[in-house]
């Protein structure tokens, strides 16, 4: 079991200008994702995590976006300027960087990725020496240092850091991930489709499955700098589902661009989302006594059907704000070892300090191999309530502060009147308002979402 060696996690976003719910993110080469910001962020984070005269090191990974080269070089300049040695790992999943930060006893880990966003965007995610994403307070401290100027923190000429590329990084993560699969089982005889979203896991994910014995059918494994998440991966699972049906595969896995989230498919091409994955793991681990905390952690977006199903097992669903950092915070607070989001961030504290799509998929495959049942019988655990989610993109200020929007939300909450839920929130990773409603009456749910989306579009027009 991982132990928390770092600072306490925040449970809500603070008023920050650069950091969102998952690091710094934006359109590449536009504020805040410019080389200047990246260099300053490296200098500030380096200053915050270096103490004393001993050697300090930072590990940096990235996904396959064209802009990754630019951001990587700027970060290297920032970290070496404040005296940190930099280990460059190239394209690797985000959870691999979290693991390697701990394994190499680094002071800091950095992942260059905009996760599930298209190639035009990029982002910077920071991990502390414990492999956990930085708290809101730590991220705010980085912003404060960047705003105050960084000249005082520059290292003297003899103490400028070095940068080194590490060649065996993929092998390290492959062995780590394989080690999470039950040792008495193999994937022999299983035909598995893996969609790597042309992203960070395009080399390691197929190899992990193949080395465990599966027949592997790859898609999304030909990155060119521009095609990450483009009509593939967890945000476009249709490609994986279609391939499962075409090749008569036993199982399908679709990762996002940095492989910290996953959705899956049974042999019929039916989608298995994060809520169903949580249900499957909770059921299995509760039987074996491995489940801790008396349930699992989800978010405000988790389907109420999951909550009802867990209740039938005398387990609970603890809800956190959206964002895997906040799920992890709730897990630490409540002693849970399983948590995640409907979108496919699955955090298993026994194995990892952050969402790991590959490890989560291996746990599901382990359950299916143990039960010797097809995925269609074992993975559609509960009947979800009708849930409708629509996104509205905006350009300037968030429309949620508009009085007309606030009043309409109140009206819709009165209409649903305890028969369901409404969640209207600003995304922390892109300029989007997410409108969600769920309840037993699907017609009412769709009507409410349509009404709210219409009023939001009206005020931003």
Explained architecture:
The structure is a single chain. The chain has 461 residues and is α/β, with parallel strands linked by helices. It has four domains: 149 residues, Alpha-D-Glucose-1,6-Bisphosphate, subunit A, domain 3 (Alpha-D-Glucose-1,6-Bisphosphate, Chain A, domain 3); 100 residues, Alpha-D-Glucose-1,6-Bisphosphate, subunit A, domain 3 (Alpha-D-Glucose-1,6-Bisphosphate, Chain A, domain 3), CATH 3.40.120; 107 residues, Alpha-D-Glucose-1,6-Bisphosphate, subunit A, domain 3 (Alpha-D-Glucose-1,6-Bisphosphate, Chain A, domain 3); 74 residues, Alpha-D-phosphohexomutase, C-terminal domain (TATA-Binding Protein). It is 36% helix and 20% strand. The chain contains 14 helices and 19 strands. A seven-stranded mixed sheet has the order 1-2-6-5-3-4-7, sandwiched between helices. The protein has a five-stranded mixed sheet with strand order 9-8-10-11-12, sandwiched between helices. A three-stranded antiparallel sheet has the order 17-19-18, covered by helices on one side. The N terminus is likely disordered.
Task: Present the secondary structure layout.
Blueprint: E1 19-20, E2 23-27, H1 35-48, E3 57-62, H2 68-81, E4 85-91, H3 94-103, E5 108-112, E6 121-127, H4 136-148, E7 163-165, H5 169-178, E8 191-195, H6 204-211, E9 215-219, H7 238-247, E10 251-255, E11 262-265, E12 271-272, H8 274-288, E13 295-299, H9 304-312, E14 316-320, H10 324-334, E15 338-340, E16 346-348, H11 357-371, H12 375-378, E17 387-393, H13 403-416, E18 420-426, E19 432-439, H14 442-460
Parallel strand pairs: 3-4, 3-5, 4-7, 8-9, 8-10, 13-14
Antiparallel strand pairs: 1-2, 2-6, 5-6, 10-11, 11-12, 15-16, 17-19, 18-19
